Input
Amino acid sequence: MFSAKRQIGNTFEDKALKYLEDQGYELIERNYLTPYGEIDLIMADHKTGEYVFVEVKSSQTSVFGSAVDKINRKKMEKIHKSALVYQNTVGKFITMRFDAVCFDKARGFETVEHYKSISV
Output
């Protein structure tokens, strides 16, 4: 059984996945684990030929900022390292992009904010 936090995370990952698939992206991997952390979604963007490493975030309160504000430099470093692990696993050079899909309680969790090519 998943923890309550993991269940909430799964719910938002499901919403993000549906949104991205509706935009034409194809799921490659979900919850990809590496020694550096987890990548929520790895998607293929066939329009650009990129592998898109997606961080899904939700925010229950805006007191400490929005969901995207929770993606800090340390988190991005872990995602970058994890993406390199993935590239080594597939055994070929891949063009990478890092996106975030965010949901905020202030917007009723229904508004999807898709940030492309994020960096911190």
